[in-house]
Structure formats: structure tokens, C-alpha cells
Amino acid sequence: MALNMAGLGPVVLFSSIHHRTFRGPDHGRDMTIPAYLLCMVKEGKGWIALGDVSEKAEAVGPGDCFVLTPGTALQFMLESGALECFLLLFRPLAVQRRRGNWQAGPLHPGGGGWPGFAGGLKPVKAPELLQDAAALFADTRLPGADKGRLQLRCQSLLCIVLDQLKERASTAKPSGLELSIGYMHRHFRSKIQLETLAEIAGLTPSSYSRRFKREKGTTPVEYLSRLRLHHAKKLLSRPDITVKEAAAESGFGNEFYFSRVFKREVGMAPTAYIKQNRLQSLAGGPSEIG
């Protein structure tokens, strides 16, 4: 039976730390998270979503940190040519004193303590952790590394990130811009007017476009197009769908316009993408971090 936290609170056991680089311009990719994971973005920009792409995605860039839980289905789209990250895998435990003895048990997602253990994709900015992550990564490669020291450094990194998550969870409210992005993710299959997005954000269309570009590094039209293309790629991986159907279900409507945009952004026609994807599918399934 899992133990409720009391006294010492959450304790983490360090498992491993990895340095990964995900490549491909505007590359749609799926993966499954195998363990509790702290992701720290070192270089690159993109958008990451949990589960279906119709759920709201979060923009990520250098210095962003977030916690993911086992079994999470993750999708990401790259804005830059590559996304370089440190991935810290750990096991959270709940510790309490019972009848004079300290006991530890698994800390389940959402079971209490820091809200970060519930996972999620609301990154916190903590660029100062990148140097510590790089040092931890280097130390794990040394022969005879002090395991106790590694555990303490892992706990320190997580404390900083999860305390920030807890503080923000008590005060954060979605901005008008974030609400408009959520609208895009729910309605990208339909025609979306810039005026509608601006109204949701409480801004004029021109002010909305300027703020979107400033905060997200792209325009609303480009963001929506990338979102639709990402969904189209997933559809084109299915053996039972045509290019025309993928265009319609992704919000492009016109098959010929969709093909032009797809080739311009992806670098190949939808039909060529289908063939390439099927060849890759024969070689292996969805990616996993580990």
C-alpha cells in the first residue's frame, strides 16, 4: 500500500541522466515516457503536447524545465533544426514515520506533495539549472562516481523546479493569448478568423498579431499552419486515409493547397511522405526515451 507523505515529505531516487538531441525541421514525432522525468531544454525551440495534438501545446525553448510521468504519450513539433535537452529520470517516494520507524513508499501522480509530480506541460524558466545538469551528467560518466552526491544533486534540481511549479499553480491564470492558442488547438479543423482569436485575447487584430509574434516567435497564421500540418502527418501515417481526406480533416480543405503547403514546409509531397513513413514503420515503432 502506498504511504501518505508526512514529516520528511517527498524524496527522489536518482535513476539516470541523458543528453538527447531531437532533430528535424518542424518534425512531428511521438514518444512514450518510460519513467518520471525532468526535462531541461538546453538549445532549440518547438511545441510539445501531451496526448492528442488537439490538446493545447506548450512552446518550449532554452532554459525551460518540466516534469513528465510514466506512460505519458508525448508529441513535439520542432521550430528549430534540433531540440537539445537533458533528461533526468528519477523515482519519487513518500516518506513518513510510523510507530517510531521511517518508512518509504511510491508517490503516485497527484497523490499529494508537490504538484509537479502530477506531471504536465507548463514549463518553468530555470536556465540556471542547465549548468548543474551538465555537471551532473559529466559526473555520472566518471568511474567510481559518488552515488550519495549524485542523489543530493538530483534532489536539489527537482526541488527548484517543483517548488516553482507549486508557487505558480496557486496564482497562475491563463492569459488571453494562451486562451486563443487553446482555441486553435480545439478548432484547427475548422476555419479560424484572426478577428476571432484577437477577440478571445481581448486585443485588436494588429495588436494580437504583434504580441503573438513577440511572445511565441511566430505569427498566428504560421502557428496554426504548423498545428494542422502536424495533425496531417499523423493522419498520413494511417494506411486507410487519402491525401484528400487528410487535408479535409486537418483544416486545409483544399487538397491542392494542402499539397503545396505540405511540400513547402516538409520538403516533400504528401504522397512521398506516405511512402517514406511506411518504410520507416516497417523498421520500428514509436520512439521511447531511455
Q: What can you see in these coordinates?
A:
Pfam families: HTH_18. It is a single chain. This protein is α+β, with helices and mostly antiparallel strands and 290 residues long. It folds into three domains: 9-169, Sandwich (Jelly Rolls), CATH 2.60.120; 177-217; 221-284, Orthogonal Bundle (Arc Repressor Mutant, subunit A), CATH 1.10.10.60. It has helices at 129-140, 147-169, 176-187, 194-201, 205-216, 220-236, 243-249, 255-266, 270-283; strands spanning 9-23, 29-32, 36-43, 46-50, 58-60, 64-68, 73-78, 82-98, 101-106, 124-125, 287-288. Strands 1, 3, 6, 8, 9 and 10 form a six-stranded antiparallel beta sheet that branches. Strands 5-4-7-2-11 form a five-stranded mixed beta sheet, covered by helices on one side. A hairpin with a 7-residue loop joins β4 and β5. α3 packs antiparallel against α4 (194-201) and α6 (220-236) packs across α7. Mean pLDDT is 78; it is low at 1-8 and 109-116.
What key phrases describe this protein's structure?
3 domains; Jelly Rolls; transcription; sequence-specific DNA binding; 290 residues; DNA-binding transcription factor activity; globular; 9 helices; AraC_XylS_family_regulators; 40% helix; cytoplasm
